Amino acid sequence: MTAGFTPADPEWEFKVRDSFARQGAMATVGARLVHVEPGHVHVALDYSDAIAQQHGYVHGGVVGMIADTAGGYAGFSLMAKDASVLTVEYKLNLVAPADGETLVAKGRVVKPGRTLVVTQADVFALKGGQSKLCATMLQTLMTMTGKSDGRATGR
Which helix (H) or strand (E) holds 19? Predict the structure, then answer.
């Protein structure tokens, strides 16, 4: 464990991976979890014409999706077993075209809290062995205590 974060749920990793696996939006665009630790989650996405905009870059909305997801699951990794997560706000700066063979969104918790959690995610475009920052996001999450994440019996 790094950055001094201790998850409130001993099954935090299963909780994160299980929840991610049930996200139809992530499956639709082809995103995958590539790194999971308390307070830190990375989501990768390979380039496809299906997620590109008219210039051939990954669409900014899709960049926002993976940033939101990486930050959201970074926060969720620290939450109690009986809680789920919901994004209440994020600010995304697209700082360069999302021009890469793969995008990687690296989410991390900035400030954990009982009700609100602040996270940050940087999205990198990997191309030809080089990594370039293409977006950065600051996010606020709400901890929904007593609200199922949708495991087993549904929502």
Answer: helix 12-21
pTM of the model: 0.94
Instruction: Give residue 54's domain range.
Output: 12-145
Look up the CATH number of the domain holding residue 107. Answer: 3.10.129.10
Contact 10, 1 (CB under 8 A): no
C-alpha–C-alpha distance, residues 54 and 123, integer Å:
20
CA angle 7, 125, 136 (to 5 degrees): 55
**pLDDT higher than 50, residue 42:** yes
- Residue for token pair 């307070």: 39
Q: Return the exposure string of 24-34: e unless at least 16 CB atoms fall within 10 Å of the residue's CB, then b.
A: eebeebebebe
Could you write out the DSSP letters of every residue in 77-124? TTS-TTEEEEEEEEEEEE-S---SSEEEEEEEEEE--SSEEEEEEEEE
Average pLDDT, the chain: 94
**Mean of the pLDDT values across residues 68-90?**
97
d(CA 69, CA 87) in angstroms, rounded, equals 9
